[in-house]
Amino acid sequence: MTEELLRSGDDVLVYDSLYKGHREAVPDAAEFIEADLMDGERLRQALEEFEVTAVVHMAADSLVGESVTHPGKYYRNNVTAGLVLLDALRDCSVKHLVFSSTAAVYGEPAKQPIEEGDPTRPTNPYGETKLAFERALPWYGQAHGLRSVCLRYFNAAGASARNGERHSPETHLIPIVLEAAAGLRPHVTVYGDDYPTPDGTCVRDYIHVQDLARAHVLGIHALAEKGHASAIYNLGCGGAGYSVRQVLDCARKVTGRDVPVQMGPRRAGDPAVLVASSQRIAQELGWKPEHQSLEAIIESAWRWMQTHGPLSH
After folding, report:
1. Catalytic residue annotation
2. Which domains, ranges and CATH numbers included, belong to the chain?
3. How many other C-beta atoms are found inside a 10 Å radius of the C-beta of residue 225?
4. Closest by alpha carbon to 248, among 163, 181, 168, 155?
5. Contact by Cβ (8 Å): 131, 122
6. Phi, psi dihedral angles at 232 (to 5 degrees)
7. Cβ(291)–Cβ(211) under 8 Å?
8. pTM, whole model, 2 decimals?
9. Tell me, what's the pLDDT at 282?
10. Quick check: 270 pLDDT over 90?
11. How would you label 10-19 residue by residue, b for 16+ Cβ within 10 Å and e otherwise?
């Protein structure tokens, strides 16, 4: 995100507690403050000191399983801390916000591909807390003039030349598959091969992280420069999506290595197919994915693992 904003000519301040972030990931050209979102006083100081005019809100806990066992943590971080941010924006007269939301707000959808107007029925506290923050935004807009763009991500993946996925623990499929290819883990567990899909495994919509970041930049500029009204957009590559088996096969092709697989039972609440319609953001903001093929996404992640990630040491 910071790379894309700097590339587009914006001045950037990164405000992060480093609870799960990495200080070395912030480019030298960006300002950095290590602080917690719950610290409203420090947040207001930062907004005023750097004369912030727009905010991209990406701070959240985001593990579905953890949200089920620790819902209070998710309500505090994703809702309460979010309201601290909104009140700081109000107090500092910041009128533009782009919010990183999630496909988890839809729950188990009744149809594919998913459109923004489809019912929102989260099946876990993670999706519920993201939706709760989304629902606060129109009220802050009505009361305080805040305009916002909510971006509902599907499966973010891939890497730029400089930054890739560094989660602990790692829960995303593509880095897990590549770690198995590299011998950093013994196998990949495939959760269910009896779904009503072409090969029996779950199908998901993968979007390259640089395409994701570009959508945020378009959102910020639409709000700040074009007076764009508040809006909600899905972010995915569209099409039919890719199955777990297709991801495995593509990773074997890209790396030239075997990926050991172990079959496991279905996970509760895993829909067979989750694919986005991104027509609305294409029509209204002119966004189109530039790294649409699964091979390009996996190649970028593999390259980053070898140059900057766990295989570079």
Report:
1. 126
2. 2-307 (3.40.50.720)
3. 9
4. 181
5. yes
6. -125, 135
7. yes
8. 0.93
9. 96
10. no
11. bebbbbbeee
